[in-house]
Amino acid sequence: MRYIITLFTLLVGLSLNHFGQKNQSTEKSAPMHSSESAWGVEQSFAYSFQHEQRPYAKLEDGVELGKGINWNNIQLKVPLGFTFTFFEEQTDTLYIMETPEGAILGLNPEGVSAGPVMVFFGADLMDRSMDSVQGTNALSPILLETIGEEGERITSVEWQNVGFQPDITANNSSTDYANFQIHIYEETGNLEVHFGDSHFTQPKLLFKGQNGPSLGLVQSYNYDQMTIQTYGYWVTGFPYLPSTIISPSQLYLDGNIPDGTVYRFERTSLPTSVEEVKDQLFAAYPNPSQGLLEIEIQGKLSATWAEVYSMDGKKVYEQDIQAVKAKMDLSQLQKGAYILRLRTATATLGYQKIIMQ
């Protein structure tokens, strides 16, 4: 099996070298990866990207979402059956929505104003029945299936024989179609998109003047305004040999995605050892602490946030940092070990393991 790996991460940050500090070694830094942004600055993120070829297999025991109703501009609830960490958010339910960016997977849009999303097929999808009035004559079922034992469960959603609204509207018929799945992994936190048989004869009509669909991850999407709030991390280039680019603009693949293609976003865990987090562009003390923590940032301050995570990756505290020397009151936290992360809007300044006594 041939793997082609492009590493990138989704916690946006300038590289340590950009700050010109003396801590230049990255051998013992947090387990992050790098990718070139659209403007040529090295970035680091908390996911990696891989792709491979694997025979496409339809879901064997999928339950149809929508109960046979034809659909357009859908919003579907996807119960996972387990707790899933999506970026820094934990949830047991995700939602499929149609947006100007295409079909996306995200948090409950009625529960939060903004949150992370996966653009898993950047096109205006529609049931191929071509019926604008909801009925029970669906030709493009959407199926849900969860398999595996507790701790290792995989929830999958499959689009079968899905059509495209621009095609149906322009031609009064459904010529082009796609088959694909999303796989969500409990144990690893990974996300995969599997592509099956697809037929695109009018790509520029289907994909807003582009040659292929759009696919990527966005850390903050405004559900109310349906707009991307942060840079997107897009899979681009030829579908059989893709690359990744960081850009504030939605990007597209250049062509039809071959049958059997798998695109995987692998989650990179937060650092868990002192050795992994000893190099950073700030200092936090005293450590261990009774609850009051002082932070001193190296270099010039820009808008900065401090985030505290439990050792299982859940964010438990966040605070704006207004000066190069600041104080944090963490007395509300239980005793134990945590990971402190400092970031700006475009940079991760580093991580430090802290102990609350």
What is the topological layout?
Elements (H helix, E strand, L loop, with lengths): L2 E4 L26 E4 L5 E4 L1 E7 L9 E3 L9 E12 L2 E11 L2 E5 L7 E8 L3 E2 L15 E6 L6 E11 H7 L6 E8 L5 E5 L7 H4 L9 E7 L4 E2 L3 E7 L2 E7 L13 E7 L6 H4 L4 E4 L6 E6 L6 E7 L4 E7 L3 E5 L6 E9 L3 E9 L1
Antiparallel strand pairs: 1-4, 2-3, 4-19, 5-11, 6-7, 7-8, 8-9, 9-15, 10-12, 11-12, 12-13, 13-14, 14-19, 15-16, 15-17, 17-18, 20-21, 21-24, 22-23, 22-25, 25-26
Kindly describe this structure.
This protein is mainly β. 4% of the residues lie in helices and 47% in strands. The chain has 3 helices and 26 strands. Strands 1, 4, 5, 10, 11, 12, 13, 14 and 19 form a 9-stranded antiparallel sheet that branches. Strands 6, 7, 8, 9, 15, 16, 17 and 18 form an 8-stranded antiparallel sheet that branches. Strands 23-22-25-26 form a 4-stranded antiparallel sheet, with no helix packed on it. The longest helix is centred in the middle third of the chain and has 7 residues. The N terminus is likely disordered.
